[in-house]
Amino acid sequence: MTNATHPFDALMDITARPPTVFVRGEGAWLWDDSGKRYLDFMQGWAVNCLGHSPEIVVDALAAQARLLLTPSPAFYNEPSLKLAKALVEKSCFDQVFFANSGAEANEGAIKLARKYGALHKNGAYEIITFEGGFHGRTLATMSASGKKAFEPLFEPKVPGFRKARLNDLDSVRRLISDNTVAVMLEPIQGEAGVWPATDQFLRELRALTSEHGLLLIVDEIQTGMGRTGKLFHYQHAGIEPDIMTLGKGIGGGVPLAALLATEHACCFEHGDQGGTFNGNPLMCAAGLAVLQHVSTPEFLKSAADAGVFLESELQRLSARHGLGEVRGSGLLLALDLKLPVGAAIVAQAFAAGVLLNSPQPDALRFMPALNIARDEISAMIDCLDAILTKAGAARRVA
Ligand code: PLP
Q1: Residue whose CA is closest, atom 10 of ligand 1?
Q2: Centroid of ligand 1 to alpha carbon of 201 (angstroms)
Q3: Strands 215-219 and 37-40
Q4: Which of 198, 292, 317, 328 lies deepest, with the highest CB count within 10 Å?
Q5: CB distance 136 to ligand 1 below 6 Å
Q6: 7-42 pLDDT, tens digit each
Q7: Ligand 1 center to 16 CA (angstroms)
């Protein structure tokens, strides 16, 4: 084994990264170690809902760090009690289990559903998930995901996940058997390129799952915490799921996630679920500060308004450059590029100091801070406009 020589070499090479080191962030902006500034429309993949290093999160962390970091998950601590109470008050759920990542929260949801099946449905364990869905990178959550690229990896997969098609109720109905215990979906498939489940589909899915006594699990790791203009996306459809997972935005930049369930679905017994850092006061203090800020009607309205503005600006851009649809909701939007040029646009935007994401070759995804200012949206649009104009000119010359 050789010792690493370049500082990058000591990290496992798990993804392509630009050779840039980021050292500071503030609001919508990031700085690298050469002093170059970037306007950030990724925000850690929809994580920093209040932008980079927001004061309220920094203050909450500093105050809690001085008081208590980790007593033990075998004891209660104040921030986790307060955050759990606030989450159940603001949602249709009755109890919360805190986790450290979205995948871990989803593992918990899968385990809870299997436990429910063992206790109440003759050992039913299958969960119907969706083609194109993404639920994380543990073995079970990769197995639950419907991402094509995952299919050949890490065989054998965890069994018990059958894939339906989004917005196709019959495809769900056909998969229901005596082995089925739950249906699990992202209300908007983010990694797949921002493909929304319609409100009508969510309502029909709720009716179908209720009819068959199945649990409905919504993975709101990307759509929750105000991202789509309501605190939780399921509220748009006026439904009440049985289980919800949260991650990303809930910590405002720190590793925090949550599994929430209604009373009848809460069936873990002692020993079924746990984890050393789960519900630690430091992360929960950050989560509480974020929730108190994000859940106010004024904040949610301003985030929804920013989403409407971004959407209309993207539509204008699309019309100007002959691109495709703008889809998504609130501040989780995608622009259909019609051609597989996403990576090239992301690279050019990076050079110009704007951070964009292309989850699929033919789409750009926008997930800025929920408190993004209009002039920051306009600055990103101007940058994208210039890149698309140049690309159009190059195509005309070629
Ligand atoms: N579920 C959804 C919908 C996600 O978008 C993600 C992450 O992108 C996850 C689960 C996994 O979360 P984490 O990366 O925190 O494990």
Answers
A1: 135
A2: 22
A3: unpaired
A4: 328
A5: yes
A6: 899 999 999 999 999 999 999 999 999 999 999 999
A7: 19
